[in-house]
Amino acid sequence: MKNHVRIVRLLTILVSVGAIAYMPKMLSGMQPDSSFKTFVWLFPLYIAGSGVCAWLCAEGRIEISYILLVLAILSTVLLGYAVTLP
User: Fold this and answer.
1) How remote is the C-alpha of 17 from its chain's centroid?
2) Burial group, residue 65, by CB count within 10 angstroms (0-12, 13-18, 19+)
3) What is the pTM of this model?
4) Residue 1: what pLDDT?
């Protein structure tokens, strides 16, 4: 049963980290003189770091792991919205 929980946890983290695939869409939808360019280029590093930290703290502190994943998803949505602003 414990192995099943690890697989589900790993799949949850991988789905959350899959938001990195959204980066090219953000880059293509961004205005040429946008001030969010630095944030978009650092975005994959932040998402990957959140995934690694969520995996490392998943054994002992599952709540912190879920908080990290929710923050990663929310930051993906908000940055995606912010880059499309005029």
Assistant:
1) 5
2) buried
3) 0.78
4) 53
